[in-house]
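Recap for those who missed Tuesday's class. We walked through two folding examples back to back. For each one, the amino acid string is listed first and its predicted structure tokens come directly after. Nothing is annotated here on purpose, so try labeling regions yourself before you check the end of the notes.
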Amino acid sequence: MNPAVPEASLTALMHLLTEQALLSMGVPHPMVKEVPPANPVVARFYVDLLSVLKEKTEGSRTEAETAQLDEILYQLRMRVMDLQPAVDSPGASKGQA
């Protein structure tokens, strides 16, 4: 196997989705020269994908994978909450200035 390509695994998939979520949050990545502006909707999508992964792999993960996935989800959810636009806040309604 090519040393530059990691082995396909649940951990690799978790890290791939995490990287995409962080890029969507505007967090720079060492391999990407220009990071687009934060996009909370896309970031939330990747966090939701990780949640689906957690749900669908319940009972099939090792303890280490479970702990890692729980920590990833916690950290990403904390970051994505900071990105939510004001219109998503409770009490805000569309069409009001």
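Example two. Treat it independently of the first, because the proteins are unrelated.
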Amino acid sequence: MANGISMERVEAIIDSYGAQRSNLIAIMQDIQAEYKYLSPQVLEKIAEKLNIGVAKVYSVATFYENFSLEAKGKYIIKVCDGTACHVRKSQPIYNAIREHLKLEGKQKTSADGLFTLETVSCLGACGLAPVVTINDQVHSKMTPEAMVALLEQIEKEEADNA
């Protein structure tokens, strides 16, 4: 286990695709679906098993926006900043989340590792704007206050389950 990632499981995913180079993106998607990111060790293992250069694997991982090279929190918060959400004030919601989670600079994941904050161009729910998703669950017509209340509810549930 490296960073909570089982290399045996990574190898099993690669092997499930016959260790074929043509399946590089699908392999990376499956590994990321399981671990929420692609660590340097994972990228090196993929390169080794597919017999391709590590630089090639890194180039694919950095080219596609959906791949993440950083560990993510248990809860992935996506704030829509598409036109409808933007004009209906999604930015104050984003700012309230950053402030509540005490994120600084380019930091995206809370210090406790519970939340990762991202913006997306469009979630496809324009009529419900402004929209936020938490682990792909849609929360519509959000306000900064409602968002902070939702975060506090999740934090309380996590504390109660700890």
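Answers for example two:
The mean pLDDT is 93.
Residues 42 and 53 are 13 Å apart (CA to CA).
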